[in-house]
Amino acid sequence: MALQVVGYFLASCIGLSLGLLGGGGSVLALPILVYVMQVPPKAAIAMTLVIVGAVSLIGVIPHWHRGNVNLPKALIFGSATMVGAFGGAKLAALPLVTETFQLILFAVLMLVAAIFMIRKAQQRPQLSSTEDPDLATYPAPICKYCWLWLLTEGIAIGVLTGLVGVGGGFAIVPALVLLGKLPMKEAIGTSLLIIAFNSVAGFLGYFGQVSLDYHLMVSFTFFAALGILLGSYLSSFVDAKNLQKGFAYFLMAIAAFILFQQRDTFRSSKVNSYLPEISSQVLLQKAQ
C-alpha cells in the first residue's frame, strides 16, 4: 500500500514536470511502474503508452486553443510514427526481444534525451530582436524538400516508441523544426499530438500480448493529469530553463539505476562468452 502511494505521488510528479518543462517527464512512467509498482516490464511498457498518450492529449488542449498545433504536419509525421510504433510493439513480442533488452534500450534513450536537454540548456545563441530564443538553439532547416526525411525519421521514432514506450518528444520537436520547418511553439504543440498518435498505435500492437492492470493504468493516468494541470499553472511563474538542466541530470541518474539493476545480465553474458572456449579445452583434455 505504501509503495502504491509513493507511485501515485511520482505519477503526479510526471505530470508536473510535463507541465513545467513541456516534455521529458513521461519517460519516468516506465521505471516507476517497474520498480515502484512492481509491474512486469512488457506490461509496463504497454501501460506507459496509454499514460503517455492520455497525458499528451491533455497537454494538446491549451496548445490547440493558442493555435500552436499544425494538424497537416501532425498527420504526415504522425502517420509514419504510428506505423513504426505498431511495428515496434510487434517486434517486442519476438523471443529475441527480452525484457532486459527493452530496459537497457530504454536506459540508453534516457541518457540520449538527458544529454540533449543539457546541451540545449547550455546554449546561449546570439539573437536578433525578432528571433525566437528557443528556435535559435537549432540550426536552419537542412534540406529543401524534407518530407521524405520526415517520414523516415517518423518511422524510426515510432519503432522506439513501440519497443520501449517513450513518447520521443526529444526527437520529434527537432525533426518538426528542422524537417517540418515549424516554429518552436508549433513544434511543441504538434509533437504532443504526434505522441498521442504513437501511443495509440503502440498500445494496439501490444494489445492481447500482455496482461494489463486497467485499474492501475487509469488511476496512474489520473494523478499524472492532475500534475500536468498544476505544472501548466506554475509554468507562468517558473523559468523552465532553470529546471531543465537539473531534470536532465536526474534522468541520467535514473538511467544509471536501471543499468545497475541489469548488471547481472552483463555478467552472465560475459560468462557465457567464455563457455565455448572452456568446453573445447575440457574436451581436448579428455581426448588426451
Short précis:
The protein is an all-alpha fold and 288 residues long.
- Low-pLDDT ranges: 127-131, 135-141, 273-280
Can you write the helix and strand succession as a string? Answer: HHHHHHHHHHH
Mean pLDDT: 78
Query: What distance separates the N and C termini?
Result: 63 Å
Largest sheet: none
* Structural class by secondary-structure content: mainly alpha
DSSP strand count: 0
Fraction of residues in β-strands: under 5%
Question: Could you explain how this protein is built, in words?
Answer:
The structure is a single chain. This protein has 288 residues and is an all-alpha fold. The chain has one domain. Helices cover 75% and strands 0% of the residues. The protein is built from eleven helices and no strands. Helix 1 packs across helix 9. It is globular. About 7% of the residues have low confidence.
Task: Based on the model shown, name its key terms.
single chain; 288 residues; mainly alpha; 75% helix; globular; TM_pro_TauE-like; transmembrane; membrane; TSUP/Inactive_protease-like
Break the fold down into its secondary structure elements and pairings.
Blueprint: H1 2-21, H2 29-35, H3 41-65, H4 71-91, H5 99-122, H6 147-164, H7 169-178, H8 184-206, H9 214-234, H10 240-261, H11 263-287
Organism: Synechocystis sp. (strain ATCC 27184 / PCC 6803 / Kazusa)
Membrane topology: Multi-pass membrane protein
Family: Belongs to the 4-toluene sulfonate uptake permease (TSUP) (TC 2.A.102) family.
